[in-house]
């Protein structure tokens, strides 16, 4: 069974950004009426709603690129290890098949039991290896989620945004957004700057 290195699900990004802004919106005073969606306040020209292009974020955020490399490396290492163990068992089976005719009935029975046990142990090991790769993916996605939530909360508060939407090609939840509301470049720039500092 092949163990594939998992690919980052962009849905995680949408949830992260949405969760971050939802938390920001909950801090809005209850007695202050909300402005209409997409409008600006009289005192400020800052838009209340902006959006981030999810496809660009996934392709340009260095943290995600490094995360993909880590997951890919772990997946390939696990796959190589499983393949190596499988080949070792296959060699033992081939050796047994070549020498079975010269063995006594007791020797054949004992060898077959040992090979059967090894085969079962290998299947369990293979399943565990696949589960570990999936666990690594979940762990990495959780870190990404938390990083994006923390960033988005701070970013929205600093810029005075009430809501940050995500746009993804082919996703019908957002059909149009004026280019003036697109903060993708700034978000990616700030995320990459913060990540570079974290790496040092």
UniProtKB/TrEMBL annotation:
SUPFAM superfamilies: OmpH-like. GO terms for molecular function: unfolded protein binding. The keyword Membrane does not apply. Signal peptide: none annotated. Gene3D superfamilies: Skp domain. GO terms for biological process: protein stabilization. This is OmpH family outer membrane protein.
